[in-house]
Prior knowledge:
It is a single chain. Strands 6-5-4-3-2-1-24 form a seven-stranded mixed beta sheet. The chain has a seven-stranded mixed beta sheet with strand order 7-8-9-10-11-22-23. Helix 5 packs antiparallel against helix 6 (121-129) and helix 18 runs parallel beside helix 19 (713-721). It has six domains: 2-218 and 682-738, Metallo-beta-lactamase, Chain A (4-Layer Sandwich), CATH 3.60.15.10; 223-423 and 668-678, Rossmann fold; 425-461 and 471-514, no CATH class; 541-618, no CATH class; 746-796, no CATH class; 811-878, no CATH class. The protein contains 22 helices and 35 strands. The radius of gyration is 33 Å and the shape is globular. By secondary structure, it is α/β, with parallel strands linked by helices. The two termini are 32 Å apart. The relative contact order is 0.12.
Amino acid sequence: MTFKYLCCDDGSGTLVGTVLQFENVTILIDPSWVADKISYKAAVSYWSEVIPTIDLIILSEPTIESLGAYALLFYNFLSHFISRIDVYATLPISNLGRVSTIDYYVNRGIVGPFTTNEMDLDDIEKAFDFIKSLRYSQIVDLKFKFDGLTLTAFNSGSTPGGSLWCISTYEEKIIYAKRWNHTKGTLLNGANLLDNSGKPISALMRPSAIITTFDKFGVSKPFKRRNREFKDLIKQLITKKSINNTIIIPVEITSRFLELFVIIHELIYNSNKLGQSLNIPVLFISYSRGRNLTYAKSMLEWLTASLLKNWGAKDNKSPFIMGNCFHVIKIEELNKFQGPKICLVSNVDTLVNKVIDKLNNSDNLNIILTEAISKINSNPDSLLSKFYERWNVSIKNDSNFKDGNTIQFKDSIALTVWKNEYLKDKELEDFKTKIIERRETNKRKENQLRQELKKGTDSFQMNNGNKNNMNGIRSNDFNINGISNNEGRNNEEDDDGEDDDDDIFLMKNRANINNLNYEIPVDMHTTGKSKYKMFPFNPKREKPDDYGTIVDFTKFIPKEERDTEFENDEIEDSNTSSKDKNILRGTKRKHTNLGGRNKNKSGNEYYNIDEDEEDEDEYIITDIPIKRTKRGRPSKDINYNEDSNENFDNIDYLDALNNPSKRVCETKTITLNVNLIPFSLENIVDQRSAAVIWPLLKSRKIILLGPPEAQNETIINNLNKKNIDVMKTRFSDKIVIDTKIKTLDISIDMELDQLLNWQKIGNDHTIAQVVGRLVKEKPKDHANEHYHSREKLILKALDKPSVLHPTGTLSVGDVRLAELKRKLTEQDHSAEFKGEGMLVVDNEVAVRKINDGETVIDGSPSELFDTVKSMVTEMLAKI
């Protein structure tokens, strides 16, 4: 069988998507956009020739490299999405993907209060709300719609929600794995390629082809060791004796930021617990502000269980709540934080350049690079590109260079900074009018499309028997503008409403196709009880002292009396001097301490503050212990009260009508003197592991995403030595790939089925010997005749059965040693299990299973040997 494969290139010389075309369905994977090389209009023009042929879109990561063009496509080709195209991804990709898209589009001026604005924030939200969210290992059954197609996402271990896609049809099974990691990291489990015993999972075995890339590999050093060394590096830089010791870390905000946030949080928490206070603010600068943290708090079930367990043991319900030392700020607010600080900056050019420009005069400015440069942000003139270039030069010149080494970067460079000039008078009014009219037009068009879709659905249901209304309508019968090639245009004279009429025409015809009342055979699967579907919950550990559990009698006081007593105490405290209040707090336990008191190794005490115990949930995520010193004063180290931070999810400032401005590019020369510290924390498989794991899947072919010159030749040669066909592909070349059929999907005719003698094997399988003739037939009276219908292979009985030659019987099945032991014991034989799963009978005969398909009976010829052999044979079916 054959399928077609295409690496998309919009003219940037970079992979921006992958197209897989089967017999009756075309799938687009990971549409992206290189904004530094291709303009917005050029990207729309390129995709206008691709989207009309697409039936499905799947996304594998929440990064710009995998979905940079998705919101652009949804906004500009809305009629195709509403009428035909479905989009599938995991929930973290749907949530975090919109965050990375906002940062990327605002960086280019496509979104935001700029004169270059092309889209609104709401357009991005609608695009990602349209995605159909999946769980890992959830099978998307599209067999009836696309004749045998199923999609399954498996954990890739590289980013939150990152997926390895298994795309299966009746004849093919394709695995798409662009980025993956087999080892466990700080936040994520390893890729779901191997089971606990190190064997490949059966769902991914023997694919027709594996689509991947060898252009980028991680380091082989264990992640726990890298994690520990990175913490030591941060601690060393913070504790340097410098007036203004600043650390800048450019991060990818969906995956790398969350990982670094947890690492730095753990470092600060453990240091404060040991009495080694790290009083340093952690700043986060991003156009989307702190929305990625809010999404992360709601998706804890997608992270590794050990992360939640460790933080649950620390009396902290979420690793994503750092307290009052963490701040989400704008560029203009950097001056408020003098002295040492850690700045996590979204790795878009405009933000990185502005931050470095503002902090360039710091006494000791350190820039830590935690990941290799992305091909999407590969602008050679950007400041980040210069840093990565210096990193690569250091590696080439010094063979002993390793992560954590400092590179002194001192040079005069041309820095590009974007400034905003606010619109005034007529320019402001014209811009507001333009945005308002665009919004009204888009809203009216969308409502009209959906109304026409609904009318088309209703009319089809009323005339379900009239099949002539749909003749000739297929997914490939539409051109770029969405107009059927089989129908003439009735309104060509109306140029103003041509686009709207085209979309309405498309919707009206598509409604009849996608809403057929199919009679789909459904298999009922009995799943576990509801308690197994609960959210993974780790209860807070109780820490009783040597005399048992502390009982707080204030819990038994009525709430009204407790509030009155608390008010009286506040009045009494207001009449007490500050010195007396410190003495009182240090000598007695206040009644608000409902959680008891615990001491850490440094001797500090922790009090749980909970004023409304009866009305509050004990496991509310913001109910975090507040650290107090021995004398009762709140510690200056850290406060885990989340309410102390402002709402950092609000991004209304990016609304197009909020102080519109004109973006002006300024280039100035600065003398940059920084310490450049490369330290790789990427969750990507290393070269050696990839060369070992891929052959285990026993794939017929490995297809490498372009370009060919970017691929690692060493691993290609290793795979070729193992007789694996590795195919390099170039951009924009549609490749037809032929695969040999090793399995056939054959239906047995009902008449032949009644003549067969079925024998049961085990609990779930039956077997029978069959002789017949294989014919190809098309389904008769198929309900969905407008989709491609493939010929079915049907095995029918012979008209004149020939005389079968007698042959030896073949025993097939599974021998269960436990069942064999029970039968032998019933006949007063001594049967015991020895080492390595061997069953020994009367110390004379041994039965052992070499593998799942071979059972060996050892022993000298005797009556007992014949008895055991006959029992084993009785457990098998004969053919």
